């Protein structure tokens, strides 16, 4: 497949991918390359067209080379080996190879193979690397494009560590992250109450309202964690009930302070390290309150759980989405036109990533790479 770096020859270059050849700062190393239409799919594979693919924090860590899951290079796009960015995304089946059953043209599919490279227009994928998305009323493209990473992370963390009953409380930080938004909504759908912490910001009241509208019980900033009156406030809100689950997205001293709000025999589950600060926990919490600290990695969950369980969780989440109980994260769609040159396309992606890196974006960015192939 030929590499075209100048304005696109639309008749030949119907596809495009956002790629990198070396690890580094994603706002510098990512470029766009165009390539010719995909050949017909081989047996047991299908060709798909990506409709939307999110830019998640872990995608940037993968490009930086600091994430444990490593992608394989995609052959044939350029003279040198390149990696296609993106792990998650929604695609539509465009053609089907021999021996494939249970899939039809135009079905929606999401990826089950990690680091498959979703920031592209089209791709040939093995049938075992995808799963069909049940089309229920109310399920949007954004729901489906963001359903394989953050919602199951939220769902599993609320299910697998502490047997929570209706009326129980959960604390979390990074509460406005996509995972945090899913935690709030899944918790609310189970009748659980959430105490949510976010970074202070100018438009705080707007953010509090957004999270309360999703079902958050209380939303505070990390500043409140240093306020001595917080413990009494929490006691009053919970009616003195122990809080037994805390979810940690950020690490650092805010997490240490948040953990102090937990009761006896509680569990702290860490799934992100957005502050890039180490987590330090007072020994006294382990000795006198019998705290248990865990890590959770959804990728490991996918590797170790049977396909039936994975589909069961997906169906549960799809149903919540269809019922309007699990809304997609606040988001913005970044469209890259089929007529943009590769230079323009690459620049658009790098610009978005520069903004994401500045923080406090308040929304998930999703790429829509348009192609002239149907
Ligand atoms: N372990 C797993 O299986 C798993 C699964 C999914 C996600 N994750 C991880 O969970 C985290 C959130 O992912 P996401 O997709 O939900 O993220 P997201 O929607 O992009 O949101 C990012 C969150 O991180 C916060 N943040 C950014 N920089 C920060 C800093 N320096 N200090 C404190 N907070 C900061 C943001 O707060 P502001 O609005 O204040 O910037 C926002 O709440 C990431 O670390 C991701 O890798 C892990």
TrEMBL record:
Its EC number is 1.3.1.104. Gene3D superfamilies: Medium-chain alcohol dehydrogenases, catalytic domain, NAD(P)-binding Rossmann-like Domain. GO terms for molecular function: enoyl-[acyl-carrier-protein] reductase (NADPH) activity. Keywords: Fatty acid biosynthesis, Fatty acid metabolism, Lipid biosynthesis, Lipid metabolism, Mitochondrion, NADP, Oxidoreductase, Transit peptide. Residues 28-367 form the Enoyl reductase (ER) domain. It is found in: Mitochondrion. The keyword DNA damage does not apply. GO terms for biological process: fatty acid biosynthetic process. GO terms for cellular component: mitochondrion. It catalyses: a 2,3-saturated acyl-[ACP] + NADP(+) = a (2E)-enoyl-[ACP] + NADPH + H(+). Belongs to the zinc-containing alcohol dehydrogenase family. Quinone oxidoreductase subfamily. This is enoyl-[acyl-carrier-protein] reductase. It comes from Hypsizygus marmoreus (White beech mushroom). The lineage of its organism: Eukaryota, Fungi, Dikarya, Basidiomycota, Agaricomycotina. The gene is ETR1.
């Amino acid at each position: 497949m030929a590499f075209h770096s100048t304005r696109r020859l639309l008749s030949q270059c119907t596809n495009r991918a956002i790629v990198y050849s070396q690890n580094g700062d994603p706002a510098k190393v990512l470029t766009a390359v165009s390539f010719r239409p995909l050949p017909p799919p081989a047996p047991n594979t299908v060709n798909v067209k990506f409709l939307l693919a999110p830019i998640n924090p872990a995608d940037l860590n993968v490009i930086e080379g600091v994430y444990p899951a490593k992608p394989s290079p995609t052959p044939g796009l350029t003279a040198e080996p390149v990696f296609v960015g993106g792990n998650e995304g929604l695609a539509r089946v465009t053609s089907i190879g021999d021996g494939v059953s249970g899939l039809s043209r135009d079905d929606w599919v999401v990826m089950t193979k990690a680091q498959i490279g979703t920031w592209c227009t089209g791709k040939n994928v093995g049938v075992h690397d995808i799963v069909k998305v049940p089309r229920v009323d109310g399920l949007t493209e954004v729901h489906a494009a963001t359903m394989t990473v953050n919602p199951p992370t939220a769902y599993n963390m609320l299910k697998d560590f502490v047997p929570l009953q209706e009326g129980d409380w959960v604390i979390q930080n990074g509460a406005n992250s996509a995972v945090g938004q899913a935690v709030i909504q899944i918790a609310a759908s189970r009748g659980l109450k959430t105490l949510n912490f976010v970074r202070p910001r100018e438009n705080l009241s707007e953010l509090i309202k957004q999270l309360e509208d999703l079902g958050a019980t209380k939303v505070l900033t990390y500043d409140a964690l240093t306020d001595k009156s917080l413990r009494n406030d929490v006691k009053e809100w919970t009616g003195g009930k122990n809080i037994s689950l805390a979810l940690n997205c950020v690490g650092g001293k805010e997490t240490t302070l948040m953990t102090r709000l937990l009761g006896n025999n509680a569990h702290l589950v860490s799934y992100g390290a957005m502050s890039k600060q180490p987590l330090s926990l007072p020994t006294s919490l382990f000795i006198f309150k019998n705290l248990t600290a865990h890590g959770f990695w959804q990728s490991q969950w996918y590797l170790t759980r049977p396909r039936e369980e994975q589909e069961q969780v997906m169906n549960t989440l799809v149903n919540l989405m269809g019922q309007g109980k699990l809304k997609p994260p606040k988001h913005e769609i970044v469209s890259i036109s089929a007529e943009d040159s590769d230079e323009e396309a690459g620049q658009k992606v790098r610009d978005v990533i520069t903004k994401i890196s500045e923080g406090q974006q308040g929304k998930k960015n999703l790429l829509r790479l348009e192609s002239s192939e149907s």
